[in-house]
Structures are given as C-alpha cells and as structure tokens.
Design goal:
The complex is a heterodimer of chains A (about 240) and B (about 750). Chain A is α/β, with parallel strands linked by helices and about 240 residues long. Chain A is about 25% helix and about 30% strand. Chain A has one domain: P-loop containing nucleotide triphosphate hydrolases (Rossmann fold, 3-Layer(aba) Sandwich). In chain A, the strands form 2 sheets. Chain A has a 6-stranded mixed sheet, sandwiched between helices. A 4-stranded antiparallel sheet of chain A has the order 2-1-4-5, with helices on one face. Chain B has 4 domains: about 200 residues, no CATH class; about 160 residues, no CATH class; about 200 residues, no CATH class; about 110 residues, Beta Barrel (Cathepsin D, subunit A, domain 1). The chains are: A alpha/beta (about 240), B alpha+beta (about 750).
Chain lengths: ~240, ~750
Amino acid sequence: MKREIIRFQNVTREYDAGNHVLKALDNVSFAIGEGEFVVILGPSGAGKSTLLNLLGGMDYATSGEIIVNDKNIVGLSDDKLTEYRAEHVGFVFQFYNLIPTLTALENIALTKKIVKNPIDAKEVLELVDLSDHANQFPAQLSGGEQQRVSIARAVAKNPTMLLCDEPTGALDSETGVIVLEMLQKLCRVRGKTVIIVTHNSVLSEAADRVIRIKNGKIREVSKNPAPKAIREVSW
Amino acid sequence: MLTRKMFRDMGCHKSQFISIFLMAFLAIFIYTGVGGEWRGLQKSVDEYYETSNLADIFVYGNNITKEQEMAVLNLEGVTDVARRMELSATILNEKTLYLYFVEDDNISKPYIAAGSTFDLNDTEGLWLDKRFADSNGIKVGDTINATVSGLKFSKTVRGLIYFPEQVYESGSDSMQPDFSKFGYAYLSYKAFPVPDYLTYSTLLIKGDVQEGAVAEALDNQYSVYLEKKDHASVSMFQNEVSQHKMMGDIFPVVFLLIALLTMMTTMTRLVSNQRIQIGTLKALGFKKGAITWHYVAYGFALSLFGAVLGLILGPLIIPRLFLPSMSSFYTIPKWQIASNEPVYYAVSIALVLLCTAVSFLACRRHLSETPADTLRPKAPKAIRHGLFERTRLWVKIGFNAQWNIRDATRNKIRSFMAIVGVFGCTTLIVCALSMNDAMNDLKKWQYETVNIYESKLQLDSTITDEQIQNIMTDVSGEAIIEESIEIRYKSNKKTGTLRVTDGTTLIVPTDYRMNPIILPTKGVSITGKVSEALGVKKGEVLEWHIYGDSDWHESVVSAIYREPVNQGITMNREQFEKYGFKWKPTAILSARTVSGKYDGVESITLTSESIKGWDELTEAVFIMVYLLIVAAAILSVVVLYNLGLLSFTEMERSLATLKVMGLKSGNLRNLLLTQNLWFSVIGFAFGIPGGLKLTEIICSYSGESFDFPISSHPRTLLISFVFTFGLSIIVNLMFSSKIRRLNMVEALKAME
C-alpha cells in the first residue's frame, strides 16, 4: 500500500431514534492509501453516507478515531472541522449543488474565498473540458456538465481527497461514464485520492480498493490488483 | 384533512404567517382604534353642537338693534336669530370671566352640568363655567363679585355649565387653556347690572345664508362676520380631529400594504415549494376547486383572525390613550368612542377579501397546470447577465457582492419589499423624532427667542395713561398694542393679530432659521404664514381691519418675518398713528417676574407658566410619537425578519454547500448581512426625506396659527440611523445561529 492517508479505527456512529438507539456505523475500521481510487459499496441504509459524512467532517462520530494525514479529526470543534473541510476535502454531490446565481467559472472561483492557493479556475474548467461554458449559469448547463463543474470546483481547492456521494446518481449512464472517467483521470494523472460512494457494484471493477458495507458494518475490504479503466467496465 | 395540512403548513412557516396575521391585525387595530377615537370626538362634538343648537353664523357689531335682528330673521334661509351682549369681567382680583348676557337662549344653549336650569327671568343668577368653578372651588349657591369697566356687581351661581362655543377655551394668553384663570358665565339680559347701557354686540344666526344678504340686512353696520367653521373653538377642535383622522387613515394603509406584500411572497413561495404536493393531490383526484380553496384559505383565515382581533381591541384600547390629554385640553360634556361603525366592518371585510384575493393570485398559476406538469420539477428560473456584469468592475467587486447583486436582481419583489420595509421604518422613526424636535424647537423659538419677556400684563380698557406710566416705571416695562384683526388680500381673508411696537425689545422678530431680524420702520411686516395663506408677497398691498371696527386700512408689506404661534401683522407706533389710531397700549411686557397687583391690569401671564402649559399641550403629540416608534420597530423587524427568512430558506442549499466546502460561518453571515445592509442604506436614504415630508403633512394639520420649524437635526438622523441599522443587524444576528446550526447533511440530501 502507498502511504496510508485515511484510517478509520473502531468508528461508531449512533443516532437517538426516540425509544431506541440506532447504530448507523458499528465499530468500523479500515484504511485508504494516498492516490487510491476507492469505491464504497452497499445497499440503501447500509451506512455509506454516514461514513462519507464522518470522513467529510460534516458529522460527529460517537466513538473511535478517524485519522486523516496523521491527525485525528474526531472531537474537533466546529471551527476546526470547517478548516479541515476547507483544506482536505473536495465534495462532489449527487445533485451537484452548484450555486444557481453564480456562473460555472464563478462557482469554481468561489474556492478563492475558502483556501489560500486554489488552482486557477480557468485551468480546472479546462481539465473538465468545459472552457466553452465558463460564463453559463448552472440552469443553462446539462446535468453531466453541472456535475463536471461541481468536480472542478472540488478539485480547485487542491484537497487531500475527493469525496463523491453517488456522483452519477442523477445522470444517465453515458453521461455518468464521462463523469466517472473524469474522476478516474484525476486520480491517475493528478494523484488525487478519490472516494466514491455508490450502490452500483459494477464500479468496483475500476477501483483500487473496494469497501463493502452492510447494516453499519464492514463486510469486506478488498484490493483490486488490476483495476479496469472506466470505459472497459461492462455497464 | 386538507385543513389539518393547512395548520401544519402554517406551523412550518410560522413567522411569515404570524407577520401576515400581525399586519392584518395592526391595520385594523389602528384603523378602528384611531378611527374610534376621532369618530368618537366628531360624534361627541356633533351631538353637543346639535343639542345645544350652536349658532351657524356669528355677527359682531357695536349695537345690533331689534330691527336689524328682524331684518336678518326675514332673510331667506335664516331659521332663527338671537342677540347677546358679551363682555369681559374681572373677578377674584385678576381672573377673567367672560360674560354672555342673552336676550333669548334658543341658540348656543349651555349644557347644565349642575344646579338649576337656565331661567331668562332670573335677574340675580349666573350660570358659571364648570371647569372654572371646579378649579377655583366655586359651588352652586356661591356669590360672585365681578368688576366690569370699574363697575362692581354681584350674582349668585345658579348652575354650572359647559358652553358649545367654549369647547376650546381660548380666553387666556397661552395656548393651553388655564381653567383657573379664565372662565365664562351665562346670564339673562335681565341680569345686566345697568339696564340702560345694555347694547347687543353679537347676533347669532341659525340657517343657511350668504354674508352679502346679512350685510345688506344690517346696512353694513357690523364689524365681523364669522361662520361656525371659522369660530376659534370649533376650528381648533376640528383641526385636532382631522389630524387624528389623517393618522388613522395613513398608517393602516401602510400595514395593509405590508400584509399584502408578505402574503404575496409567502404564498408564491409556499405554492411553488409544494408544487409536487399539489401535483400529487391532483393526481389523487382532488378537484381543482378544493385545492385552490385550500391555498386561498391560508390568506382568508389569517386575515380574518387578524381583522377580528383588531376590530375588537382597536376601539377598546387606542381611544383610551388619547382621552386624558384630549379632555384636559377640550371641554365636552360627554366623551364618546365610536366603537361600532359600519365602515369598520366594511374595511375589515375589504381587507380579508384583498388578502384572500392576493393569495388566490399567488397560487393560481401553479394550480392551473396539468397534474403531469405539476409533478415534474420546476424549470429553474433563467438568469441573464446584466449590463453591469460585462464591465471590468464586476470581477473586482468580489464574490460577496456578486452573489448579492445576482440574488437581489433575481428576487426583485423581495428586494423591493425589503427596501420598502426599511423605508417605512425610517420614515416613521424620522417622523416621530422630527415631530418631537419640532415641538421642542417651537417651544425654544417662542419662549427663548421671540418672547423674551417674563411677564405680560394685560391691560384693562379703562386704564388711564398715568396708570400705564406708573406701571411701566415700576416693572421697567414696555407697552405694546395687540388687537385681533382680519386681513384681506384679493379674495382671501384670514384672521390674525396686529402688534404695534414702540421701541419694543422684549419681542424679537426672527426669520425661519430663528435668527433675529430687524423689521423696517416703514410699512408693515407680516408673518410667513399670513403671506402663504393669503398669497401676498413683499411690496404688495393688503387690507386689514381691527375686530370691533368696520374700517378697512391699506398697508404695503415691507417685510416678512416668522413667528411660531402668533400669525399676523407687526408695525411700529408711528405707522399705527398714521392711520389715525390713538396710542393706547393693551399690554405691558416686563423682563421681571411681576406678581404685584395693579389697578387697570386685567391679568398677568408669566412665561414660565406658559411653558408649562405648552408642555401639557404637547402631551398628545408625544403619545403619537411613541406609537410611531413602536410601529416603526414592529414594521421593520417583521419585514426584515420575514424577508431574511425567505432568502435564508431559498439559499439554504447554497449555504449548506458553501459550509460543506469549508466556508466559515462568519463569512456566511456576512453574505446575508451584506444584502440586508444594502437594502437598509437605500431604504434609509429614501426614508429621511419621507419622514420629514410626513412630519410636514402632520404639522400642517395642526392649524394655521402654528408655524412649525421642521428641520433635520443631526441628533435625529443619528438616532434614526442607529435605530434602523441596529434593527437590521439584530435581525441578521437572528440568522447567525441558524447558520451555525445549519444541518449540512439534511440540507443537501434531496431536491424537494
């Protein structure tokens, strides 16, 4: 394994569901290496999103440790978590979540407000092949294009990792493939750690590492010795 | 089941719906409350005038004969006439008692509050002003010793009365009636002490007739012809009523507009946020009418509750706030509150219908779509690049400004409303403070700049030149003449005061900025209000005559000066004597506090007491000022909070995204604050002239004799600024905890 960049150590997340305690994550442990293309697989309600939210610094673990870049992020204050998100995490959402009142370029340039030395917005836009659409508003872009802007926005911060929550969930398969190719390219060419949460098991063929999760527990963590390119995966 | 949905929806949009309810309530509350007050005043005074058969026309002359009276009675339109003698007596040393000796008590009858009814055959009885009696401890059966022009006589108090011509007792020198110093009494002509000298000075007329006809019937032997509406007591009260009426009419409209705007934005958003639900309801088979009614019912129910509550509480609370100051100033036997007027119901129904109609308009568009269309997510609103965005500056202003400009232009109605809300708030607060300023300035102007005497000795008409000289030496006084006059320019007429000075230093003429000026010695000078009312300018010629003297005189206007409360003409002794008048002072001014007793002095007015009177008079204004400030605060908090909430809800997803991306809470708060501050700045900038204009309008209703100095004090502007922006920031702070608590996971989950 390359340098270990993320480690979950006995992480539990409990929710108070009125009369009983719901364990969304139950004593989960795993590790991810730098520059890996990781797929987290599992059916609905398995705890995938909880895992992603914890890793993204949007939620608090009930117990355990989450080590990112040798630092435990469990127990950080709100402000520290915000700093953590700004510095380490690039989010790609299922519904893109572009700011509707900002153009594609402005959505990316937004990162200037957040980190000190972001990658130039135009450069990132070129990376996702959308230079021609720089001045269009989200409403004027197709779903796939919006998702690519969203990826560009996440990359512009130059984060430690990209966290993608069902990035193709709202897209048709052809557009989905383009988006996933983009993510894989970022991983392979730029060396970004990319973590994708999905319920589509086909994607596991393209991953370096596959984490299967069910009922809040890790079922299997497997390494893929020869990950395929996205195009080669049979959809 | 839909009703249950409605209440739950209301629960979810609590603050918007509460504010719609609140605005509907306030509109009706103030309308019926202030309406109940002024309508009550109007009703009280109308009934009083009606039952006392107040004269329609007052004609003053020297000696109105029986023949003249009959000639007037025979005029077409005249239904009744009566003669009476009016004169001023001194009692209890220096108190003034104005006596009405009536030939008949058919017109302008007194209201008997205590004692026996009026008897025309009573030669020894007197019916006394109740408030004068009360403040001097005089009771029915007491004996009154009075002096008229040196002649002493006594009468027995038979009853205590209110008099319809003395609703506002203007007898004393200050604005505020002083019931302990000035009173009136009603007597039979048979009670006149020297029957041989009885001449009638006043002719009262009931009916509808023109001055020309009366003048002809009287052979022009009269000096003043006064219609009821111009009578000092009647017009003073009427001014008060119309001032209250104006407030009661303007403010509810403001609240109604806010209610409608809030309704419009809230309903539009509610419906567009629920379009999938609407589609589902349609697909389930609910009839369009049922769904429409469901949404229209929000507006209907809220405005109905608000209106009903306002209708109940308004007349119950507001009139009681005004009553104490009104009744200390005016005298009416019975104060009424008009709590149950058809127009209240009409206005309430109109308000409910309007709100219902607006909520219908707001949701009509979505409801007319087919279920399939409605179920599909709404196409996002198209955005275009504005002109500004093509400029270079656009890139430079930064993300915060870019975001807010786009957001504001994309939500024009919301932005407009926010500006209107701040504008309304600033207007009200500036108006409230300016009114306060105007009152204080007027006091300072009148008592510290213009009238710098401390005592004013009102002289008896029988005083001799020698007595005057003695008093002047004794109090180091200055003598002046003050007479009531009528001024005419072209077809315009106005009553006022003629002041004749003789090297006077204790009354200082000023300009509008309250700077002392020196009046020219030639010609006459007039006050600004007279100039405005008559349309006469410097260098033009006006005419005037003294009441009680029918000769008109022409004068050239050589200067215009301003005075806060006393409007009229000023000239010097030399000019006055040129018209053939004799120098016969009516008052002596002194810089000292004069308390002694002098023969020939009718009364002494101390400036310190006048100031006290003025303070009491302005009490009603201050009630209004407080009401305005409260209204301003409610208005701005409600509007700004609502709009903030609306934009917050709309931006929630974007804000959550930014937060996930790592933007700090403080930055997000600034994002929201920026827009709020922009709107506050714009609203504030328009609100200042708005507030000053409103003050001007309100002050213009206080009657022609006042010249209010309206100006924008730096202090007022500063307080308004702090108030408006303080509220704006406080409202913003309410959202900062919302931003901190913003649940990123929830907000980003799904589209709807």
